[in-house]
Write a structure and sequence with these properties.
375 residues, mainly alpha, three-stranded mixed β-sheet, 11 helices, 6 strands, globular, disordered N terminus
Length: 375
Amino acid sequence: MVSQKGLTALHSVYNEYGKGYNPCKPPKDLTFFITGNTTFQTTGSLTSVQSNSSANVTFVRPATFFISGFSNFSHAKYYYVFLCFVYVVTILGNLFIMCTILLARRLHTAKYIAVFNLALSDLCGSSALIPKLIDMFLFEHQLISYEACLMNMFFVFHFMNIQSLTLLALAYDRLVAICFPLRYHAIITKTSMSLLIGSMWMFSMALFAVLVGLVNRLSFCRSTVVNSYFCDHGPVISLSCNNNDINYLLAYIFFGLLICLPVILITLSYCCIAAALLKIAHGADRIKAMKTCTSHLVLVAVFYLPILGVNVKSISTSIDQNSRIINTSLTQTVPPMLNPIIYTLKTEEVMQSIKDLYKRYKVSTITEINVKQRM
């Protein structure tokens, strides 16, 4: 049997969600009281309520979340237009690097398999985040379905993690190249790098499938307003009204495993590289070896320092919502834009390959023109 309170609650949901639901003012406190072995399916913001016969248990899964974005920020639209520009530059830059690697034979090496993967993850990560963000806030489509929210969460974090692991793979490449130069081509092969990159993708997908999958055990019986600019894991699970300790625990473990640990390993690899460079007698050889690491070091600084800075600051002091959104969104969108620029300007191999491709294109164009003139 269903209690009178349960019927009253269901009636109130129908009245509010079925008639003129205002997403900007979602209900703050909404709870169902159900007894007996009963299951209800509802429409609107709440899709299911289930209970078992052993106890009065309420489980609520929202049909949609409302992504709030900035709070009382008058120039928000200008910021979103700026992110449009960032996205266009990111797409063009990373496609340029990927095409250069594919077309230039001198870049068909193990190292540039990792560089290609970094460009691909930058491209996919920005595409998972920025277009949806622009659609939500420039075109005011801030309601997102429950399933789409979890998919958005998975892909944003997955591609961000691939970027982190790829930087670690590139650090390993530099470590072997400088500390074990005679064994480099035996250790770092196209096959070994491809297997390493493939393992990274499967490892990351498995981890975030677990992290996002555990959101399904949570009940959202109060507000469905996510105080972020995408379906961020922390703001989403903070809305739950049942125990979410395991979700927070996994979030901390994953942050330590996928962000902090790679930083530690990269730092240790460069300590070994520095020790190896000090053993090189000739200064010119030392500088030449150091130049092969500069682009990677800049990429590491651009990617990790903002992430660590934002998270450390959020732990030590409270950050208002607008500042947190600006800091986090810039952290996730600017590095993918800068990576291809840094690799183009800082890597002699890439610059030389671009020049060779341009000369090849110029020669083929002149040849075509001459052939047409003769005909």
